[in-house]
Amino acid sequence: MKKKTPIKWLLVTTVFLFLGCMVVSPAISVALTRTHVVVRGDTLWDLCEKYYGDPDLWPKLWEMNPFVTNPHLLKPGDTITLLEGVPFKESFEQDDSTRADQEGRKTPGPGDEDLAEKDVKKQEGMFGMPWSALKGGIDVGSYMNVNTFGYLSRTKVEPEGRIFSSETKKEMLYEGDTAFVVFDGDVDVKPGDQFTVAKSTKLVPLPNTGRRRGYVISFVGQIMIEGPAALNRRGEPDERKNIYQATITESYRAVNVDDLVLPYEPISSCIEPTPVEEKFITTVHAGKDDTKILGELSVVYFDRGHKHGIREGQLFELVRSNIVPKPSMGAKTYTDDKPRILPRRKVTLPELSIGVILIVDARKYTSTGLVISANEEFHPGVSVKAGFTQIEPTGYLSMVPSCNGK
Predict the structure, then answer these.
(1) Among residues 83, 74, 73, which one has the least CA distance to residue 49?
(2) What span, in angstroms and rounded, lies between the C-alpha atoms of 353 and 73?
(3) Cα–Cα 20 to 30 A to 317, which of 123, 159, 353, 392?
(4) What integer pLDDT is reported at residue 221 of this predicted model?
């Protein structure tokens, strides 16, 4: 027995030395389990910038946390496991320890959701949007020509004029071609004036109801007035006939005889994000050019506008119903001593978030949006939620060129 005693004491001593190292150097244990508790507005992109100073590390962080379904819409309260073997940026380490010393409290960690939430709220605006993310604007012109957005009109559009002929009697006109326009008698037209050429659909039915409300107005080009085209008996230009010669300065698709001529309304390509003030649910009424299959970078229209609280720069969430077959504990039941096959019923699960829409134009009764993110195709009639879910602009728009002011 005496011979085994040194071995026993050696083991005990080793254990205490190991525990002592863990106490003396807590960084060793912390490094193995570095985590972050999600607060409202967090994205994997932001966490990588915060901890490592390199937002491009977010794909690796996503691999470390496979339960995350959307790296730009994290759920508050979830625990994110941070990267292994990647050191924190020096400024974060210093700021973190200094803040803890000055405030006499520990830094937020697991179980400190309320504490972390309060810190973040100090820097947030309405619905969790950090005001720092709202500085400057989003260059939507990097997606497409903003003059092609078009809009939805609840009533039939009364144009100021129409294309009624061309110089060479061509059926399809493009940039650089000459067109002749007949204007309404009350329209004041001068050389150099610009107008938008557009097409209108027939009355578009409201999805899911069958009611017929709204006309999709598609912009096809722009023209500049050169001067009166009709001549009087002396061969001189006659403005009284309201017929003018115009040059097509831009064409987004073919301009045709009988197309509508509308006032030119310049649209800003610099959109400043704006928080949603009141929650509401609506649907996508129609797509640009009355397109039925929509997706990322599609232009969509809503049967709600400025009067209903919609503002340029707001971010809406696209959602889809999630109805699946009800799971069965077994294929058969044996009640009444006879086996019967159970019918497969449906069960409704929480809605799926499938994309984000940026409002680029808000009129009195209708509005126009650009789908800046979508992970699947959708159709008019899909549901849209505004103000229900925190949508972090820096997450979805971080890769989009920014701009200064409108």
Answers:
(1) 83
(2) 9
(3) 123
(4) 95
Which of 263, 281, 298 is where one domain is finished?
263
- The string of pLDDT tens digits covering residues 146-156 is 999 999 999 99
Nearest CA to 261 among 237, 225, 302, 211? Answer: 225
- Are 318 and 300 within 8 A, CB to CB? no
Contact call for residues 294 and 333 (beta carbons, < 8 A): no
Query: Which of 189, 176, 369, 368 minimizes the C-alpha distance to 263?
Result: 189
Is residue 352 within 8 A of residue 367, CB to CB? The reply is no
Do 252 and 281 lie in one domain? The reply is no
Question: CB neighbours (10 Å) of residue 179?
Answer: 25
Given 246, 263, 280, the domain boundary residue is 263
Q: How confident is the model at residue 133, as a pLDDT? A: 45
Give the closest residue to 219 by CA, choosing from 180, 263, 177.
Answer: 263
- Asked if residue 249 is part of any domain, the answer here is yes
Residue whose entry in the numeric block shows the structure tokens 């050191």: 87
Cα gap 391→220, rounded to integer Å: 33
Q: What is the pLDDT of residues 118-172, one digit of tens each?
A: 443 433 333 334 434 445 678 888 888 999 999 999 999 999 999 988 877 788 9
Residue 65 lies in a domain: yes
pLDDT per residue over 219-230, tens digit each? 999 999 999 887
Provide the token pair at 273.
């994000």
* Torsion sign (Cα): 63, 66, 70, 75: negative
Beta-strand pair 315-325/383-386: antiparallel
What's the farthest any 2 CA atoms get from each other in the chain? 134
pTM: 0.62
Please give the pLDDT value at position 302: 94
CATH of the domain at 54: 3.10.350.10
Q: Which residues of 365-388 are buried (b: 16+ CB within 10 A; e: fewer)?
A: bbbbbbbbbbeeebebebbbbbbe
How many alpha carbons lie under 13 Å from residue 6 in its C-beta half-sphere? 1
Query: Nearest 5°: phi and psi at 315?
Result: -110, 125
pLDDT tens digits, 299-308: 999 999 999 9
Distance CA 77, CA 406 (A): 37
Q: How far is CA 341 from the centre of its chain?
A: 46
Domains in the chain, number? 3
